[in-house]
Amino acid sequence: MEQELARALGLSLHQLQQTGRRIDGAVGGVLQRGYPLLVHLLGRAKADELTDPTPRDTQDLTTALRNCENELTLTAEQFVDEARAARSTGELRAALGIDFAALNHTLAALAPRYRPISHGEAHEEALRTFVDLHRKDLLNRLRWSALEDFDARRPLTDWPELRTLDWITAPSAWALTVEVADTALLRAQVEEALAVRLGAPAPATGDSLPPIDFVRGRNKSVIAGRAEDLVALVTASGRTLPAALAAPAPEEEIPTWLEAAGALDFRVLGPDDVVAWLAALGQWPTDLPRTADLDRHGLTPEDLDEARNETNRARAARERARRLISVGNRELDVHSGDFTELNAVLREALDARPELVGGHHHFAQITPLGPRNRGNRTGNRPGRTQGRADRGLSQAQRTAIGYAGEWYAYHWLCRQYPGTDESSWVSTNRRGAFPGTPGDDGLGFDFRVGSGKQPLMFEIKATQGQGGQIELGESEVRAAQQHASHDRWRLLVITSVLDAAQLQVHMLPNPFSARGRGHYREEGGALRFTYHL
């Protein structure tokens, strides 16, 4: 066979044998995999004696091992063959039938050259598979354990986390001591985890409960069908609506409260059950009966109809208010995103006061700020409107205010930089003023002034108030950091943007640049900055 292979390769038999000897003689890999096993079987002193100096090849290693075959429990040739075939020390251990934990003890003693073999990931995967296979049964046992508290309307604040079963994990000690986590071991670990978490063994039987997926879906439907009635009932009773009922969408808010209390996963709830749970959570007027029965409240269906009408009128008024912005003395509906009317009002304001976009393109003087001593308490999202004056705005209002800011910024830039034209406006807000390209909000700036290799870039921040805080989105932070070595990435802050009598344009430096560094204070990370003019 060797002769045929040699002919196929165009080699002499001697050349083939020499090549094979060089390949087989790569004793380094064999020793790398086999040395820990030699230490484990023969002791470290003997293993070092056999491998130092390093044998020239596997044949020399085989010869040296022949005197140790009794301790090896297999022939020297078999040991070397297994070491050559194995891809790792772990595979070699398995081939030789050596105890997993025992070899890890040896490997630990050989640190840092060797590290114990960990089966931690495999054990965790096996446990997750076991838990998934028995999930319905495990959840029922947990439901039985908590049923008494549920029936007593005691909030189960840990239930949302408990029902995930993610807290059932493989012990870390298994990683180095357990070769294979079999079913019996996994079951025992799950039972122990249940007992530790519950403070007692989990019950194996209990009341007949509907399937958890069914009961959760049914309860959501029950609440969705009765939420409006409950709001009307409380309103007709002349009481202040609690948070769960006063929300814009109580059919979504009520399940959120009950979900957090674990109240949706056990039994199908009736209207009175929902009220009882709201009361238990402090979301029902304390002086009202804990029932949805109108007679108990001294109300009629007509009373509820009138309350619904009142609620609907109030809701409609709130919704309409969230569609409007006030520019000067005019209210504009901006919900549709069509800014034709807004453009006309802004143009009237600018024509009446052209100085709004006057002045000079100098950086505003801002006061250096030190780090905040106390933790950040703000929680606004990055956006185009800034500061306390803009809190509570709808998305439509935020978009319109951001657009107004960019509209004024465009005309300010045209006045300050003669090369500015509609192509300089690169954000998607340009669609409100010009046809053609839709713009791109992922560039990290709203205007690019100049067509050369070193254009000026302006990110616009608009606010109804006096400013003092800016929020940068991820693309804006990325662009600001990318251009921090120069002053070409800049901020234009438009304050009092909806009040032409107070409107001002401030050009501020890049917070990450040398000019801007020390003049801003990070609030909650690199997305929000405070500054003082």
Question: Helix content range of the residues, please?
Answer: 40-55%
Strand content: 5-15%
- Structural class given helices, strands, pairing? alpha+beta
- Name the shape in a single word: flat
Total number of domains:
4
Which ranges are low-confidence, i.e. pLDDT below 50, for 5 or more consecutive residues? Answer: 374-385
Summary tags:
flat; 23 helices; 48% helix; 4-stranded mixed beta sheet; alpha+beta; 7% strand
How would you characterize the overall build of this protein?
The protein is of the alpha+beta class. It has 23 helices and nine strands. It folds into four domains: 2-109, no CATH class; 120-198, no CATH class; 212-319, no CATH class; 340-530, no CATH class. It has a four-stranded mixed β-sheet with strand order 3-4-6-7, sandwiched between helices. The termini are far apart. Residues 374-385 have low confidence and may be disordered.
